[in-house]
Amino acid sequence: MAGHSKWANIQHRKGRQDEKRGKVWTRIIREIMVAARTGGGDLSANPRLRLAVEKAKAANMPADNIKRNIDKATGNLEGVTYEEIRYEGYGIGGAAIIVDTMTDNRVRTVADVRHAFSKYGGNMGTEGSVSFQFKHVGQLIFAPGSDEDQIMEVALEAGAEDVITDDEGAIEVLTAPAEFETVRDALQAKGLMPEVAEVTMRPENTIALQGDDAARMQKLLDMIEDLDDVQDVYHNAEL
């Protein structure tokens, strides 16, 4: 199947994430704690915790840090309790934005998110106002020039739902969230290493923004992503 041009957007996003490495550990620690608290500290029985620990290792977090935060969350150590809250809203040109947070202070977080939206011309929406425009999926993206036939064969055999090639030749493998690890492991076992591998909220349709609109949208996204309580931001803008 043909898809929109995603490659430039993905490279842009990865570059901005690399600039914010200092915040990555904080966000991963929160994810580990919530995953362990909700699903237990046993990696083999908790897929969400497994993915969080893999992220931690990829970010070079020491094993002691990982274990300490799992222990905190499962009650073996005193720790802060975080709750997960999702906010939805609109950016420039009606682009849809989902903001996933983990917070120990709900009042502070909603005020910060609302301020970020309003400062750059966005609007907070109600629960469900934009989430219907996204699908919860496992997503693996391979750089242009990767072996499309082999990726498609291995991915579909392992249980992937779809394989899409975009205008620039990047290959996107989509899975149900529960099948993500199985498909990723099957691809990696064949030496097929994705540039991006995550469980995400994928927009069903995108809105192209250019010039001043794109710049304003980027400022809005940057301000939201820089908030201490924000874990993930999903949107359907092509910048």
Descriptive notes:
It is built from eight helices and eleven strands. The protein has 239 residues and is an alpha+beta fold. Strand 2 and strand 3 form a beta hairpin. Helix 2 runs antiparallel to helix 3 (47-58) and helix 6 (148-158) packs across helix 7. It is globular, with a radius of gyration of 18 Å. The model has no long low-confidence stretch (mean pLDDT 90).
Largest pleated sheet: 5 strands, mixed
Order of helices and strands: EHHHHEEHEEHEEHEEHEE
Determine the strand fraction and express it as a percent band: 15-25%
The counted number of beta strands is: 11
CA-CA gap between termini: 23 Å
- Strands in their spatial order, largest beta sheet: 1-6-7-5-8
Which descriptors apply to this entry?
single chain, 239 residues, five-stranded mixed β-sheet, four-stranded antiparallel β-sheet, 44% helix
Write the layout of secondary structure elements.
Blueprint: E1 2-3, H1 7-19, H2 21-39, H3 47-58, H4 63-73, E2 83-90, E3 96-103, H5 106-119, E4 123-124, E5 134-142, H6 148-158, E6 162-166, E7 171-175, H7 180-189, E8 196-203, E9 207-208, H8 211-225, E10 230-235, E11 237-238
Parallel strand pairs: 1-6, 9-11
Antiparallel strand pairs: 2-3, 2-4, 3-10, 5-7, 5-8, 6-7
Helix pairs in contact: 2-3, 2-4, 6-7
